[in-house]
Write a structure and sequence with these properties.
0% strand; single chain; DUF2624 domain-containing protein; DUF2624; 72% helix
């Protein structure tokens, strides 16, 4: 069941919209501009790294830092961790 849930979450990341990302950034008080959100969404759609694998997650956020900034990548990482905690799956990201 865990693998199925992880696949669903990974698919959702690939289908995330700018509007949804901005909604979550406001909800969790993580500053992301509309332009940064657009770049992040574009990168997530192309991402082939597994966000549940520590090395894959590191590569994914390194790529995000290159297309936005280190601060934005850190903000997105915080957002991911807060969302994972809200849904009770933060242990999958350790």
């Amino acid at each position: 069941m865990k693998n199925v849930a992880q696949q669903l979450i990974t698919q959702k990341l690939k289908q995330l919209t700018v509007k949804e990302l901005l909604f979550y950034s406001q909800k969790y008080q993580i500053p992301i501009t509309k332009d940064e959100a657009a770049a992040i969404v574009k990168a997530l759609k192309k991402n082939k790294d597994n966000p549940f694998d520590p090395d894959g997650r590191k590569r994914m956020f390194s790529k995000l830092a290159k297309i936005t900034s280190k601060d934005t990548a850190k903000s997105v990482y915080k957002l991911l961790m807060k969302m994972a905690k809200e849904y009770g799956v933060e242990h999958w990201l350790k």
